């Protein structure tokens, strides 16, 4: 039996929707299971159940009040926000120089920036540790801001340079004719046009700083200065043989919510930023 063109069209749509539904379930199920686990207590934590029961909010109170997750959450917000601000400020000026100014070795510099962004953290951990100690930043949030900025800058510079190359040169020339200086061109002309691109790169840098674990574990030892990933990794039960799964799951949900909120708020700009520069008109 030969299917009509309309039936084939509906069949293709059904396959697409089925694939999208399967991908959504695979991506969302871990967070869903962590959420319902965080609302359990006692022996019910170790029972396999896929539907939520009677909610138990004590795990959230324990995570925030008794284990210092609230303080660590504030530390993560400060570190990630400072990292994003410094990265965007430096990256947009560097992108302007790399995209608009012709100089010898520009291509090699861009290639070097791309190579640096591929370095694994463990390869530079000892060097970063010596730099942090030399600058007197050990066991402070400044050490994390410095290390996160160092690792995020190559990526943000590369991405913003690609976006800035897609902006017509006539806008810059018109601004120069009107007497605008370089800083005015960057802040008043390029920055508004590159808004979606800035949001996209800034959010990716924020997520990287928010989730980072190795540098945060190495450069900070005081419990009051830990970021959220390390604080969750340090959670302990009433004894050395107990692992507080309910508290860990509650802390994981608390940590994930800010990222979800940011993505939902800026989702339109993120999509626009990802496609910006794809078509050069």
UniProtKB/TrEMBL annotation:
Please provide an example of a Pfam family that matches this protein in its UniProt record. BPD_transp_1
Q: How does it sit in the membrane?
A: Multi-pass membrane protein
The answer, when asked if Transmembrane helix is one of the entry's keywords, is yes
Please name the PROSITE patterns in this protein's record: ABC_TM1
A biological process (GO) of this protein is: transmembrane transport
The listed locations are: Cell inner membrane; Cell membrane
* Superkingdom of origin organism: Bacteria
Main site of residence? membrane
Membrane-spanning segments: 12-35, 73-96, 108-129, 141-160, 243-266
Entry keywords, A to Z: Cell inner membrane, Cell membrane, Membrane, Transmembrane, Transmembrane helix, Transport
| Start and end residues of each ABC transmembrane type-1 domain | 73-266
Q: Where is the signal peptide?
A: none
Q: Name one GO cellular component term.
A: plasma membrane
Membership in a protein family? Belongs to the binding-protein-dependent transport system permease family. MalFG subfamily.
Q: Which PANTHER family match?
A: INNER MEMBRANE ABC TRANSPORTER PERMEASE PROTEIN YCJP (PTHR32243:SF18), MALTOSE TRANSPORT SYSTEM PERMEASE-RELATED (PTHR32243)
How is this protein named in the record? Carbohydrate ABC transporter permease
């Amino acid at each position: 039996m030969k299917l009509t063109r309309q039936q084939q069209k509906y069949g293709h749509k059904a396959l697409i929707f089925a694939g999208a539904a399967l991908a959504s379930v695979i991506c969302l199920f871990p967070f869903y299971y962590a959420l319902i686990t965080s609302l359990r207590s006692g022996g019910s934590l170790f029972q396999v159940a896929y539907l939520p029961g009677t909610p138990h909010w004590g795990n959230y109170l324990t995570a925030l009040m008794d284990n210092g997750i609230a303080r660590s959450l504030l530390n993560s917000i400060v570190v990630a926000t400072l990292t994003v601000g410094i990265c965007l400020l430096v990256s947009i000026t560097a992108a302007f120089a790399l995209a608009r100014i012709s100089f010898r070795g520009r291509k090699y510099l861009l290639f070097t920036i791309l190579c640096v962004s591929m370095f694994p953290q463990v390869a530079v951990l000892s060097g970063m540790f010596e730099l942090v100690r030399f600058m007197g930043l050990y066991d402070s949030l400044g050490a994390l801001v410095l290390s996160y900025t160092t690792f995020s800058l190559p990526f943000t510079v590369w991405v913003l340079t690609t976006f800035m190359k897609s902006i017509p040169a006539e806008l810059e020339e018109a601004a120069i004719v009107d007497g605008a200086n370089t800083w005015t061109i960057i802040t008043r002309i390029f920055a508004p046009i590159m808004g979606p691109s800035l949001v996209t790169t800034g959010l990716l840098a924020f997520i990287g700083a928010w989730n980072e674990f190795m540098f945060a574990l190495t450069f900070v030892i005081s419990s009051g200065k830990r970021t959220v990933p390390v604080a969750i990794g340090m959670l302990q039960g009433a004894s050395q043989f107990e692992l507080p799964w309910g508290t860990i799951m509650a802390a994981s949900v608390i940590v994930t919510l800010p990222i979800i909120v940011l993505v939902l708020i800026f989702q339109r700009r993120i999509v626009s930023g990802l496609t910006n520069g794809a078509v050069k008109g």
